[in-house]
């Protein structure tokens, strides 16, 4: 990834609140890895889309897969909504939950076009976080951009509190840990 090696980012993984969604009796990196593995079979159907978009935007495909895992459980939690593809009280759309309040969703909820749009949003947040924190390393920028993808760049205040205003207060930590699992397992 042009924005740092996701395997070098140190994160704490999922909070107990996030891990309880899967009825796990543990949290942290182990929980994030378990949830990524749970989503792996569903993720396979999107692998070619993910790889195409990752190459286009110079983003690690494991990061895209991890956001898909966290945001929609590889489509599992939004498949049966009416209409399909909506989450977050019908504000988030698609596998990567593009927020309609800030972006006009493009493509079908499970399409390459959607993944492309969401990855463009992530790349934009990488650039915004880089401007906001020019002294941050590429590894910190990656974690900060993932947090900003969830909560907006104005709500990322420091690396030490990168997740203080994200969903579950663990979005970046969890996504990075999931991405590390996907990277180790073929994404």
Automatic annotation (TrEMBL):
InterPro entries: Glyco_hydro_23, Lysozyme-like_dom_sf. Keywords: Glycosidase, Hydrolase. It catalyses: Hydrolysis of (1->4)-beta-linkages between N-acetylmuramic acid and N-acetyl-D-glucosamine residues in a peptidoglycan and between N-acetyl-D-glucosamine residues in chitodextrins. GO terms for molecular function: lysozyme activity. This is Lysozyme g. It comes from the Eukaryota. The keyword Nucleotide-binding does not apply. GO terms for cellular component: extracellular region. Residues 1-24 are annotated as: Disordered. Belongs to the glycosyl hydrolase 23 family. Its EC number is 3.2.1.17. It comes from Gadus morhua. GO terms for biological process: defense response to Gram-positive bacterium; killing of cells of another organism; peptidoglycan catabolic process.
């Amino acid at each position: 990834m042009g924005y740092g090696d996701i395997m070098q980012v140190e994160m704490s993984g999922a909070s107990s609140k996030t891990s309880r969604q899967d009825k796990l009796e543990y949290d942290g990196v182990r929980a994030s890895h378990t949830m990524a593995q749970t989503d792996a079979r569903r993720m396979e159907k999107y692998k070619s889309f993910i790889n195409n978009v990752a190459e286009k935007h110079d983003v690690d495909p494991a990061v895209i897969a991890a956001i898909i895992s966290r945001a929609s459980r590889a489509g599992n939690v939004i498949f049966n909504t009416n209409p399909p593809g909506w989450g977050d009280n019908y504000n988030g759309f698609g596998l990567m939950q593009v927020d309609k309040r800030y972006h006009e969703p493009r493509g079908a909820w499970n399409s390459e076009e959607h993944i492309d749009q969401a990855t463009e949003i992530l790349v934009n947040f990488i650039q915004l976080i880089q401007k906001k924190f020019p002294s941050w390393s590429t590894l910190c920028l990656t974690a900060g951009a993932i947090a900003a993808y969830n909560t907006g760049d104005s709500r990322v205040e420091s690396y030490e509190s990168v997740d203080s205003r994200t969903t579950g207060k663990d979005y970046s930590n969890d996504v990075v840990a999931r991405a590390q699992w996907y990277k180790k397992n073929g994404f």
